[in-house]
Amino acid sequence: MIMKLKQADLLFVKNGHSDLDEGIAESTGNFVHVAILADEENVIHATADSGVCLQSLQRFLEKNKSADVYRTNVKNTKQIIINAKTHLGKPYNFSFQPGTNSFYCSQFVVTAFEDFVKFSEQPMFFGDRRKQISDFWAAYYKELNEPVPVNVLGTNPNDMSHDPQLHYVGKLTYNLN
């Protein structure tokens, strides 16, 4: 059976082993990125390289190799995509702080869906198995010259994937064809 994708499906990506991915995975779990399916051929997401951007699904899968697809029961998916597109070109939120005019990936999804799905936020965690703030995050925020936003409410892709308003649809993998 071939999986039928639908507009506004969420594509969750596992750790790609970049330094940032490793830091996120160490603190939150396997899923380190989430994107929104804009249409059959494109995704919208917030990336460290491009900020909020529209990218071909083919290019997205080429880079990430695979994605787990989750879906809500929202009927008005066109409005979600309209909401998402209003943020195209906005910068990436490297500090993961709320209240900026920039977005990290799951923060972007929360904003695009806000009129239809209320995703839960929880205190952000930047630790590992040994420390409340891992060495990676301590160095990361030192470079930003900002405090680590421990316990500030936020989201992350791994926790979002467990939201009861989402259901698993299947796995997409990169296909050369």
Describe this entry's structure for a reader.
By secondary structure, this protein is of the alpha+beta class. The protein has helices at residues 19-28, 57-64, 77-85, 105-113, 135-144, 157-161, and strands spanning 10-14, 31-39, 42-47, 51-56, 66-71, 122-123, 153-154, 167-173. It has a 6-stranded antiparallel β-sheet, with helices on both faces. A hairpin with a 3-residue loop joins strand 3 and strand 4.
Strand order of the largest sheet: 4-3-2-1-5-8
Distance between the termini: 18 Å
The biggest sheet, with number of strands, parallel, antiparallel or mixed sense and barrel status, is: 6 strands, antiparallel
Strand content: 15-25%
Order of helices and strands: EHEEEHEHHEHEHE
User: How many distinct helices?
Assistant: 6
Secondary-structure content class = alpha+beta
Helical content band: 25-40%
What's the total count of β strands? 8
State the shape: globular
- Give the uncertain stretches in residue-range form: none
Question: Mean pLDDT score, rounded?
Answer: 94
Radius of gyration: 16 Å
Topology:
Blueprint: E1 10-14, H1 19-28, E2 31-39, E3 42-47, E4 51-56, H2 57-64, E5 66-71, H3 77-85, H4 105-113, E6 122-123, H5 135-144, E7 153-154, H6 157-161, E8 167-173
Antiparallel strand pairs: 1-2, 1-5, 2-3, 3-4, 5-8, 6-7
